[in-house]
Amino acid sequence: MFPILGTKGETIAFGGRIIRKSEAGKYVNSPESPLFHKKATLYNFFSAKEEIRKAGQAILVEGYLDVMGLHQSGIKNSVAPLGTAFTPEQAKLLKRYTDNLIIFFDGDPAGIEAAYRSLVIARTQKLNPRVVILSGANQSLDPFDISQKLEFTEILSLLDGSRNEVSFVLWYFFTHKYNISQLDQKREAMENFFEYVNKLPAEWEKDEYLKEAAVKLAISIDLVRNDFKKTGSTHIVLKRKPVEYEEEVEREYPVSSLEKEILSLLLRHSACWNDKVLLDEVEWSGKESYLLYVFFRDRLRSGEFWKWKDLNKVMNLLPDAGMVRLLSDILFSMETVFEELEESDDAAFIDKEYSKKLSQLVMLQKKERLEKEIKQKTDDLSNAEKQDPDSVETLAEEVATLLGEKTKVEQFLSSRS
Known about the structure:
- By secondary structure, the chain is of the alpha/beta class.
- The chain has 17 helices and eight strands.
- Strands 5-4-6-7-8 form a five-stranded mixed beta sheet. Strands 1-2-3 form a three-stranded antiparallel beta sheet, with no helix packed on it.
């Protein structure tokens, strides 16, 4: 058990790492409360924040013991998420004290994938991320093991040798994740690399990545640029439509965060589509969210289902620019949202957790909808008392009915919390 401190040093929760296999997952934290929000809290942040400010950088590790091992070795500016993926809220917290982040995760494939996802989150919050890549005799170790094996100066040397963002991204796509000596894997590596580059905010930055890729792959920069224009720039943006459609393409369509979460959940876990009664409760606020829902629902009925990591391949199949933008937004912003539901090895437990989460999201949306209806009906009732007394009784009954429905939804949500 580990006490979790708030930003002012007060104990706000406890975290535990389960030793034996359990349905509860590897890590268990205190439940969410007004004091404790897991996604916005970092282990050891209170003790490390001044060290982070002095060092000009933070070190992100995966677990409690990694933090403790480094601290005992003299590395006191390390923090860790609470048994789950690194979140934008945690990145914002670090951003208040430094612009620089070293990601120091396990050297196994799972650790490298987690490091890549953390790098993406760090970049969205305008942190400058670097990544430690463990190799050789250290590859199978984690930061705690490293803290026991190496001396203080050796650990500092390891941290100083961390790769900057460009270097890590190139290594990740062209060395670690794909075998580019095989044509099909090289093609997939380039597509995914182009997708990453396309999300960068500045054109000059995109070009720097392309130049570095050209050097690493030993091919012409002009060839890389041309391929990027043909595939990278259209990978998540619909190809240009005729002039009469441009106004429609450029228009923004608001989609609620709850709708994005529901869609993300459905795309992460196919079993959630089986709860048709619950899904019928969803009211899609925009054309894009409904069309995207129908697109995947109809294809699932015909036997097609894309895994989350392959959803970028769906972009060119979507018939509407708004759908492309929405799916791109979901893939980028919801990458890590449901990872904690997938930590168990028990498939039945994962199904149950996803089903529970889906019901919570749908009921939360219903609650929001009822609150809007209640406000509208209450305003109508207030006006009717002055202008249309005959309708007061009917409107009052409608408000009472809506309030009753809202109470039932709140009771349901309370029972699931």
